Amino acid sequence: MFTFDQLAGFIAVAEELHFGRAAERLNMTQPPLSRQIQKLEKTIGTELLERDNRKVQLTPAGEAFLEEARRLMVLATRAPVTARRIATGRSGMLRVGFTAASGFSILGPLLEEIAEIIPDVDIDLQELVTGEQIQGLLTGGLDLGLARPPFDREIFDSHLLYKESMMLAVPSGHKLADLSRPIEDADISDEPLIMHSPTKATYFYDLVVRMFPIQHANVIHTVSQILTMVSLVAARRGVAFVPHSATLLAIKGVEFLPLAGMESEQPVELHAIWNRKVVNPALRRLLQDLEFRTE
Fold this sequence. Notes:
This protein is α/β, with parallel strands linked by helices. It has three domains: 4-87, Orthogonal Bundle (Arc Repressor Mutant, subunit A); 93-161 and 269-289, Periplasmic binding protein-like II (D-Maltodextrin-Binding Protein, domain 2, 3-Layer(aba) Sandwich), CATH 3.40.190.10; 166-263, Periplasmic binding protein-like II (D-Maltodextrin-Binding Protein, domain 2, 3-Layer(aba) Sandwich), CATH 3.40.190. It has ten helices and twelve strands. The strands form three sheets. A five-stranded mixed sheet has the order 4-3-5-12-6. A hairpin with a 4-residue loop joins β1 (49-51) and β2. α1 (4-16) crosses α3 and α1 (4-16) packs across α4 (60-87). It is rod-shaped, with a radius of gyration of 31 Å. The model has no long low-confidence stretch (mean pLDDT 88).
């Protein structure tokens, strides 16, 4: 295998087309430079230079190899710098998982803050439900998650990003929208209900059944994504319990009504979570500098 000294010697001779000037440029004498070029040609298996007593010129193979040699030297120069930047968290990749609901609420502002703190770090976004994010954080497939509780606090550290209330999404013009008060349990006892999936949207399912007397006989659709739920409400398929951030979707044909008991309560939580065994320097630097919007 050739060395970077041999590459540097070849590039100097190829650009100067003169062994004496190339040796002077490299602060060495001509004989060792000639030996470097000979070793390089032997390693490659072909002549790169044509030389006689009067001139030096590149062979066709030498012209092709010159471009590759320059590229290799640039990479060799850049590699230590890149390694140092990655080690200090100033370069590299940060893999962030997020739920669909966080995607239309806090994700944008949070990414702006991340970009200010670690501007040269590439961000890989992955839309995942909380359970998938937990698995990714355990296996190393994710560095940071924007997820719902619960999670194992012995394994994961976290920061509460925000809390919000639940609301009732109803089709525009629905009779419940005419009430000039928060919606009570009795108001929706006979309403067709679009419900959260107990397996794919466990957090919202558990929260809703804990807070409201759900008549499961009234459930006509079970879905996992808030966007799908609100879209079904717009299609007049039923009503749905959704977090307040769903109002940001601005889907036509839907009204969002306050729920009795939610005036001061904000049960819906979103956390930034990460494995306590942080190995990504970019995440470590982010956690040191990031001022979450809730602070």
